[in-house]
Prior knowledge:
- With 405 residues, this protein is an alpha/beta fold.
- It contains 13 helices and 12 strands.
- The relative contact order is 0.09.
Amino acid sequence: MGISRGAPERWGLGRVSGVVWETSPAGVTCRLATDRRVGYAVHHVRHCCFAEDNGIVVSVLGECPVLAVVDGNIQRIYGYRMQEYFERHLNLRAWVTLDVSERMKTLGTVERLCATAQEVGLPRTGIFVGIGGGVLLDIVGFASSMFRRGVRFVKIPTTLVGLVDVGVGIKQGVNFGNSKNLVGAFYPPLATIADRTFLATLDARQIRCGVAEILKMALVRDGRLFRALEEHAGELVRSNFARPHEVADDVMTTAAADMMDELCPNLFEEDLRRLVDFGHSFSPTIEAHSEYRIAHGEAVALDMLLSCLLAVHRGKFTEEDLARVVATYESAGLPFWMSDCPSETELYEGLAEIRAHRGGRLNLVLPRRIGKGMFVADVTRAEVGRAVGVAREMTGAQARGAEVP
Ligand SMILES: NC(=O)c1ccc[n+]([C@@H]2O[C@H](COP(=O)([O-])OP(=O)(O)OC[C@H]3O[C@@H](n4cnc5c(N)ncnc54)[C@H](O)[C@@H]3O)[C@@H](O)[C@H]2O)c1
């Protein structure tokens, strides 16, 4: 694709379908109904999106005024070249570097970005572009949903979690008090540009976090994806998801597409029974309790293992399937348990917040077999305690070099 400046992609704006008047003894009620349409594209590019012969960034942003926000580590590694590209080919209003972390994923940071957008006079037709991992994209996305009550937003994810998960959905948000992602918005991006070349500089721990998010989809939705990880997780992690090349390509595209398939019919979460919540019921408590020393993807991995153990104890998931999950964790280097994890009581009590988030029902996702998930209405404190005990034992056995039970 060559570089050409032109109109940006169309934004999926809603269309008012009508207003209905009703009169009653109490007065007049005007009911407005819209059939708001939402659409956005995830562009999986074959080579560096900032290369001169890859016109995707220019074709998405066109001549619109741009506020680019870049993760501090990305700036240090790629910043100069990217900034120069923006200055040469795009209508760049401001280039902001943010050293982000979960502790900075706050309303204060969102407010500072809005202040910068105001200072540079970003108009309603402006676009926020986020270039970084999930933390940066969540912050920038939320700022874009608030600034002038919403300006467009383009995501350029640079982590594996970003490529297969954050980059494909519409949720933006930040932590609030001691709660993960408590405030935010459903706010569709204009587009996502998924460029895997960024993975070359990501550290192994972050690659493993991405594997956890891929396993989430594989375990409850896609047995074929699980088998690919089962066979290749070790090499994929060691090679920063570069080898085996075709498997890496297929796994990333499939995981992102599975996620989109799952989100699409329920994009605004009217239905609070969501398979994509697998691994996300205990994990917010784990992350917050560790004061974010445990990374998001690690917390998801710990949560998924607890969920598999709960399912085994209920006789819903076989020991053979559990053994396959454990072997895949071992080859990917995913944790069974970590020293910063909360107690079983805290884990159990943390489910109250999840229940509130899911409209009063826990809707806990457990695997039924590999590639198939199910929902359970509740779980007891004793069940959580037993699962935690087994996960601890597994870590102990691994540390002793013994066979993991
Ligand atoms: N909105 C959503 O739908 C959604 C979905 C999943 C996760 N999340 C959120 O995403 C966050 C986790 O995101 P993450 O796992 O991407 O972590 P992250 O954003 O914290 O990035 C991890 C680390 O990698 C660095 N980094 C990023 N790209 C790099 C690269 N290419 N080379 C070298 N270093 C690089 C970052 O600076 C950071 O230090 C959590 O806050 C989670 O809640 C949001």
